[in-house]
Amino acid sequence: MAVVAGWQGRFFEDFVVGDVYQHPLGRTITETDNTWFTLLTMNTNQAHFNAQVGADSEFGRMIVASPLTISIVLGQSVSDTSQNAFANLGIDELRLSNPVFAGDTLWSESLVLETRGSSSRPDAGIVRVRSRGLNQDGVEVLTFKRAFYVHRRDAPRAASHFPQAATPLSLENEAGENAQ
């Protein structure tokens, strides 16, 4: 038996210009998500939390706060793009192309645009991607380009921090516990 490591994310060497990562987790946004986000971020635009104001808007209902949409799409991309990053360097060309409403499910995907090794940090490189969010109907709701520093596979700081268990998890140990 062997311990099989879970998905560790991509390291600098794993990125190939032109690859597209369709991030696996969709996220349905609720009215509660939107309300909490506006409260946490002190966004006082009532179009996000006042049903009457939303109903009177050109959309006919409350819209999801754009920073929430951005945060979810960026977050969805982390497992495939920046799980092993140690610094975001910038977000550029952010476009909010369609509104998002409570009840919409967001999906995202990222295209690798550029990779380059770092001259100042030999154990890392810079990756640039274009990410976009789609709603459940496949309509693009936002797009942005992002650059980040990411560790190389053998970088000392990229080592796993998983603790060594006092008692290893194994079938033998499981059988002993079930016998008691």
UniProtKB/TrEMBL annotation:
Pfam families linked to this entry: MC_hydratase
Domain of life of the native organism: Bacteria
Region (Disordered) residue spans: 159-180
Bilayer-crossing regions: none
Database matches in CDD domains: FkbR2 (cd03451)
Cited SUPFAM superfamilies: Thioesterase/thiol ester dehydrase-isomerase
PANTHER family, per database record: BETA-METHYLMALYL-COA DEHYDRATASE, MONOAMINE OXIDASE-RELATED
Protein's name according to its UniProt entry: MaoC family dehydratase
Lineage: Bacteria, Bacillati, Actinomycetota, Actinomycetes, Pseudonocardiales
